Amino acid sequence: MDAFHNHAAIFPVGYHAYRIYWSMRHSNRRSKYLCSVEEEQGRPLFKVRVVEKGYDDVILVGATPKAVWDQVLDSVAQIRTSSGTLKLFPIYLKGEDLFGLSTSAVTRIIESLPGVEACERYTFRFGRNPLMEWPLAFNPSGSARSEAKAGQAKRYTLTLYTHTTHINTHTHSAGRHSKSAQYRRMKAEWKSNVYLARSRIQGLGLYAARDIEKCTMVIEYIGTIIRSEVANRKERLYEAQNRGVYMFRIDNDFVIDATITGGPARYINHSCGPNCITEVVSVERENKIIISSSRRIQRGEELCYDYKFDLEDDQHKIPCHCGAVNCRKWMN
Q1: If you write DSSP's letter for every residue of 168-226 in order, what string do you get?
Q2: How far is 91 from 77, CA to CA, in rounded Å?
Q3: Domain Post-SET: where (predicted)?
Q4: Distance in angstroms (rounded) separating the CA atoms of residues 204 and 195
Q5: What is the pLDDT of residue 315?
Q6: Are 82 and 74 in contact (CB under 8 A)?
């Protein structure tokens, strides 16, 4: 990690971003610049692909973001000077900014990636997550994940269990609104409810971005609804592709597959002392799986619910690392 960061930015391998900047060929046009970070002999290699209509793509490379972008900036400055266009001052432009690595939304995600705690020179903009200081436990089931049992086709698939009494209670303001109205409000506001960050339980987790009152719809578990037979085939395909498998069983016949088309809700981890529940809400004759708060959740608190895996024998037990006071020590 030492070579893949400086005091201002972290350079994750595989990073891609389209940037719009002035053309290297025309003073009054803009072009697309596909910025990417690769690895070469243990060091970062920065690439910029110049995409401009009517011209072949040009690929520029450099050892630093500034080095590769200077090739663009020099050409742009020459074109604009020769045409009498407003002069730019490329010496003051930072390569990290031009790559988009310092954009707030991008920085927040990068600072949540596994391994960032090893970036000793980097100055965290959003504050080092205190949970990063915890030793991370290995949980083979991951988050809402299906794991194959040895020699059997049955999977540890997240199973839906419903709690409707909370939403319908008349002692809370949410109870005076229909579920469909709550659902529409949640769909409009869910991005302000949660954020993705490193979890002390397993990998990444979903956190409350604000204080959330009890009985509030927080986020929808989305994905592709498929039959159990199809889920069995897809699981084998995902495993062959070395993918993590994210599935949520609705009933004996249908499963929501969030592996490819899922949303952030798939990262919610299991806990024996959860602060959320799951329920089915019918909206316009379609069943939706909703994660709702079972108690008041404070900002910065990790969201979690009970996966309700079927009980298994000792040979197939999955350790639980939720850390709850009432932790059952096993997820199944």
Answers
A1: H-TTSGGGGS-HHHHHHHHHHHHHHHEEEEE-SSSSEEEEESS-B-TT-EEEE---EEE
A2: 11
A3: 316-332
A4: 10
A5: 67
A6: no
Alpha carbon separation from 152 to 29, 92, 131, 148, 149 (Å, rounded) = 60, 61, 36, 7, 5
Pairing mode, strands 194-198 and 204-208: antiparallel
Residue 159 in this model has a pLDDT that exceeds 70: no
Distance CA 199, CA 205 (A): 5
Q: In this structure, what are the phi and psi dihedrals at residue 146, rounded to the nearest 5 degrees?
A: -100, 130
Which residues lie closer than 8 Å to 243 by C-beta, 6 or more apart? 259
Q: Among 157, 135, 127, which Cα is nearest to 235's? A: 157
Write the secondary structure of 13-64 as one string of H (helix), E (strand) and C (coil).
CCCEEEEEEECCCCCCCEEEEEEEEEEECCEEEEEEEEECCCCCCEEEEECC
Distance CA 214, CA 77 (A): 57
- For 96-130, write each residue's pLDDT tens digit: 999 999 888 898 888 877 778 778 888 887 755 44
SS3 category, 293: strand
Each residue's pLDDT tens digit, 230-245: 988 988 888 888 777 7
pTM of this prediction? 0.50
Give the residue with greater pLDDT, 166 vs 68: 68
